[in-house]
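Write out structure tokens for DUF2759 domain-containing protein.
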Amino acid sequence: MGLVIIFPLIALLAAYGAFKELKNKNFLGAFWGAASFFVLGWFTVMTVLYHGIPTGTH
């Protein structure tokens, strides 16, 4: 269940990196940051849908 926590954190960092590199006009870095954001964002959504949000009690 740690993936539900790790995936969104990395996706947010990738979005920040993509925006920062777009401001610096580094388009290859912005592309890879945006691609990482979309892939990890999709993994986050699907993990939450299929496994739920961790409650801490099992």
